[in-house]
């Protein structure tokens, strides 16, 4: 009975270690979702203290027809310029995969929502292990989903580039988990 408990504990710890090595899925605004907030600094407060990494995802949860999410330039973000945005997702919820390091800007194009604080600026850092594939040309902006049939690029989640490789720490964690599981199975065999 005691050896079985040890095996379950070891397997539980291993699964927790493996789970912690995955990319992070962020729900923008947490339980509030993506809507015009009562506090204009709500989304900047939400993003502060978070480290966004290439491969993470942002899920913008909003009601279709009431809000949208546009990926915009810094100047459009700063001035809440909602006119003529071509990289807009109008169907909620929308999930965007962070595909490149850099600062990204998002806002809602509905009436005064941006000026009321429905906008988000984040900085994405590279994963801890450089990609073996060719790097993107400098200055290539990441893309987000678009619902309009325009010449805008496809959403990052459907791009042809491979996903970012696991970090060295992810590989180490996975290896240690397998070693612990092997030891646990061997230990059970000898009891």
From TrEMBL:
<feature type="compositionally biased region" description="Pro residues">
    <location>
        <begin position="132"/>
        <end position="144"/>
    </location>
</feature>
<keyword id="KW-0732">Signal</keyword>
<dbReference type="InterPro" id="IPR008972">
    <property type="entry name" value="Cupredoxin"/>
</dbReference>
<dbReference type="InterPro" id="IPR039391">
    <property type="entry name" value="Phytocyanin-like"/>
</dbReference>
<feature type="domain" description="Phytocyanin">
    <location>
        <begin position="24"/>
        <end position="126"/>
    </location>
</feature>
<feature type="region of interest" description="Disordered">
    <location>
        <begin position="126"/>
        <end position="170"/>
    </location>
</feature>
<dbReference type="InterPro" id="IPR003245">
    <property type="entry name" value="Phytocyanin_dom"/>
</dbReference>
<protein>
    <recommendedName>
        <fullName>Phytocyanin domain-containing protein</fullName>
    </recommendedName>
</protein>
<feature type="signal peptide">
    <location>
        <begin position="1"/>
        <end position="23"/>
    </location>
</feature>
<dbReference type="Pfam" id="PF02298">
    <property type="entry name" value="Cu_bind_like"/>
</dbReference>
<feature type="compositionally biased region" description="Pro residues">
    <location>
        <begin position="151"/>
        <end position="167"/>
    </location>
</feature>
């Amino acid at each position: 009975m005691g050896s079985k408990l040890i095996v379950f504990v070891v397997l539980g710890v291993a699964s927790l270690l493996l789970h912690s090595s995955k990319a992070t899925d962020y729900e923008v605004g947490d339980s509030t979702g993506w809507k015009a907030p009562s506090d204009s600094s709500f989304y900047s407060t939400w993003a502060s203290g978070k480290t966004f990494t290439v491969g993470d995802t942002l899920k913008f949860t909003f009601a279709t027809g009431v809000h949208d999410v546009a990926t915009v330039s810094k100047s459009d973000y700063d001035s809440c310029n909602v006119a003529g945005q071509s990289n807009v997702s109008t169907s909620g919820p929308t999930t965007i995969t962070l595909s490149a390091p850099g600062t990204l800007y998002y806002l809602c194009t509905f009436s005064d929502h941006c000026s009321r604080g429905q906008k988000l600026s984040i900085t994405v850092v590279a994963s801890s292990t450089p990609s073996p594939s060719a790097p993107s040309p400098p200055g290539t902006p990441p893309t987000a989903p678009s619902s309009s049939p325009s010449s805008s690029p496809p959403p990052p989640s459907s791009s042809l580039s491979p996903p970012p490789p696991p970090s060295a720490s992810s590989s180490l964690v996975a290896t240690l988990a397998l070693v612990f599981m092997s030891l646990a199975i061997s230990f059970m065999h000898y009891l």
